[in-house]
Amino acid sequence: MACLYELQDYSIYSVKWYKGPHEFYRYSPLETPTTRVLPVNGIKIDRLRSNETHVVLVRVGSILSGNYSCEVIQNAPSYPHYTAVGRLDVVVVQRGSDAILACLYELTDAPLYSVKWYRGRHEFYRYSPTETPATKIFPFAGINVDLARSNQSQVVLTRVSFGLSGNFSCEVTADAPSFATSIVSNNMEAMCCERIAHRDPAGRRQSSPSSLTTCL
After folding, report:
1. Which domain of life is it from (predicted)?
2. Is residue 86 within 8 Å of 69, Cβ to Cβ?
């Protein structure tokens, strides 16, 4: 997650990251060490890749969905501070199953020009109603798009694998004259499920629909 800022009059005093009201990461260049991790349930941080502008979360699961904020505090004498808030929604799907990623929007001043889907920085699906055909697929390792079920508001991925875990975003662009563009990103986590055989007190093997466990 990125916290991008420009300092005018004073240098940086600290950058603090919160999930809801709970601080979980702090960068303070005047302290040693400069980074500090504070325990918050479910949050694991890659300290080597986190710094004054980015915090990197690892083993991201649905428990991490929620509101996040970064607070930037400048140095003396006034210690002015600024806060930015965003939301992270983690979509969890079972490995080998299909994933339906929705991109919901409302256009008021102009018709739709295009909807583009990205995995990270790489575009893999585009819907352009003024082109023929209206849908286009760009090759991406591990991504299998079901064209029959994909359209201007959703893209359907089949046979989801662990390798697809990561950031997905949709970019919606309105037609002329404004060509206004909006981008929304979410994180998807592919998980595995295995059936666990239980034993009753007599030592007999049992299996039930509830005997499923998930692992990352």
Report:
1. Eukaryota
2. yes
Counting Cβ atoms within 10 Å, is residue 3 exposed (0-12), middle (13-18) or buried (19+)? buried
Residue 1 included in any domain: no
At 66-111, the pLDDT tens digits run 888 888 888 877 777 788 776 665 555 666 778 888 887 777 667 8
Same domain, 115 and 179: yes
Among residues 182, 3, 185, which one has the least CA distance to residue 85? Answer: 3
Q: Tell me whether residue 3 is in a domain.
A: no
pTM as predicted: 0.50
Q: Which two tokens stand for residue 82?
A: 């600024």
171-202 pLDDT, tens digit each: 888 888 777 777 777 766 655 543 333 334 44
Domain check: are 106 and 184 in the same one? yes
Q: Is residue 203 part of a domain?
A: no
